[in-house]
Amino acid sequence: MKPATRDEVSLYFRWALVAAIAFSALIAILSPRLAHFVKPEDQGSSWYYWQLAEPTLWSRLSSWGLYLLHQIGTWVLVALMLREGNHPDKVSRLNKIALWGNLAFMFLHLVQTHLFYDGTAQDVPVWSSQWSVIFMLVFIIYLLIPRRGIFLGLNMPLKRKFYLWIRKYHGYYIGWALVYTFWFHPMEGDYGLLTGFFYMFLLFIQLSFAGTRLHVAIGWLTVLELVVGIHGPAIAIQKFLAEQPASAIFRDIWPMFFFGFLAVFVFTGQYGFKLSRSTRALIFAGYAALAVLVYAFRGYNRLFEILFIPVALIGGAALLAVLGNLLSGKDEKIPLRRV
Prior knowledge:
Elements: H1 8-30, H2 57-84, H3 93-116, H4 126-143, H5 145-148, H6 160-184, H7 191-208, H8 218-241, H9 254-267, H10 277-298, H11 308-328
Helix pairs in contact: 1-3, 1-7, 2-3, 2-6, 3-7, 4-6, 4-11, 6-7, 6-11, 7-8, 8-9, 9-10, 9-11
């Protein structure tokens, strides 16, 4: 009888998830120790609250110095992983270096926050972090078009040369977006930031498993798309409740984030799975019913706002596809790989 082989990818993935959860808990537990850092008064929706009122030389040197080390290391690993190629059922030495390296920088960031507090947000606009993640999500939606279509399962022809170029080199951009956003924020335990850091940790796992089957697993990729739909509303709710009573919660824009990101799954993401028509109908009905219920309190005159995020993300992916097709000329098309 042939002995059972160890599923190395699943084993490392499970431990990476445990580490992400445990580290998020550690951030929350240690967060009260940050109360002595003085932050400026909140100045509105475009203002980033989690920064020192008076930054120091060391707060800047520590955040930017560690960011640059992390960034350069990530790009070097991306380049080496590209050279290494695919190994679906094996966790390579580079994968392990990426996992341990990101964990090391997570600890370094935690220590840096407790010593000096500031991330890089002190010196760059808040929208730069937000848009870096938005473009990352656009790339993911674009790359998954051959597997699930662009909208309601509808196919969008993609020219081979441009698509393969994006697929090959997207790691450099995503590696930048993740590390840049990671060092933008201090490691605070407020639930808004904490959900964001947990999402970052999941994305570090995704990056670290490049070349393995996990990196392209549609279920895992869909989870990554959905988790951002928790972080967005959490940030909005936290900022709103800092100034307004909980009874006024439906005056806030959190439903825009919740239903906006959820719409990406409802209208695009679910088509990565082989589901029956009745199951798809239930997903549509559940989404519509929940939106009707929430906007009964928020006001149906605001219902249009749930279109902003799916139009930006799905529309951005479609625009990228059109641009790629135009640049590729008469190149052959990518074949579909539907479930």
